[in-house]
Amino acid sequence: MSKQSQWIVGVNAVASSIENDAENVREVLIEASAKNPRLVEIEENARRKGIDVRKVNTQALDGVGGSVRHQGVAARYQAARTYSENELEGLVEAAEGKALLLVLDEVQDPHNLGACLRSAAAAGATAVIIPKDKSATVNATVRKTSAGAADRIPVVAVTNLSRCLKDLQKLGVWIYGLAGEATASLYSIDLKGNVALVLGGEADGLRRLTRENCDSLVKIPMPGDIESLNVSVATGVSLFEAVRQRGL
């Protein structure tokens, strides 16, 4: 797993990092003039776990948060939870025939990626797979949007997504790509075993090679007038259909 130092901001993201991965939180900055009781809880929890806490002015938080709304708190985080593709086999095997993988093909909006991670964590997914190129990375915006989910689920960045899908098939994983023009319904397929759900990016959906390496293309039936769903919404619908089928 690769590591790098970065700032994460926002109440939920910082609280989750302290609760779930305190050993990788190096320090916490809290706005000195803030009145939010959640910040008091964060400060107490951080100090209880031996994390340095500093009271700073708003300008200091603006500096580390950049364009992301910091809500009066930031944390310097030492680990970016990005797993190598060599670890995928172990993650699938550990799921004992019930792996649920989310594959995102060039999702470039960090807010969408964060929302997808949140749905994946809520659904108990085994891992989220993203390409190293032309994809949003797990940055401060993603961590904040995911409401802490980025600290709870393995994110695997792969060099070649098509090759990764082929490798997953060799491990006994069935690959289903979501595409609006597909004839089969998501609700008609068996999602109870080793399954990877593949969703495309905001602009063009699934790329050609990604489509060709899926076992089947399926669609979410939409009787209304809208032709497609936002990728994060489609992710939630797809993952929780798998959850429903598995009786979890």
Oligomer: single chain
Strand order of the largest sheet: 5-8-7-6-11-9-12-10
**What is the mean pLDDT?**
89
SSE string, helices as H and strands as E: EHEHEHEEHEHEHEHEEEHEH
Query: How would a textbook summarize the main sheet?
Result: 8 strands, parallel
Question: How many strands in all?
Answer: 12
Strand content: 15-25%
The percentage helix is 25-40%
- Given the C-alpha coordinates, what overall shape results? elongated
Key phrases:
8-stranded parallel β-sheet; 9 helices; 4-stranded mixed β-sheet; 248 residues; 35% helix; 12 strands
SSE diagram, text form:
Elements: E1 6-9, H1 11-21, E2 25-31, H2 37-48, E3 52-56, H3 58-65, E4 73-77, E5 82-83, H4 88-94, E6 100-105, H5 110-122, E7 127-131, H6 140-145, E8 155-158, H7 161-170, E9 174-178, E10 184-185, E11 195-200, H8 208-212, E12 216-219, H9 231-246
Parallel strand pairs: 2-3, 5-8, 6-7, 6-11, 7-8, 9-11, 9-12, 10-12
Antiparallel strand pairs: 1-4, 2-4
Helix pairs in contact: 1-2, 5-9
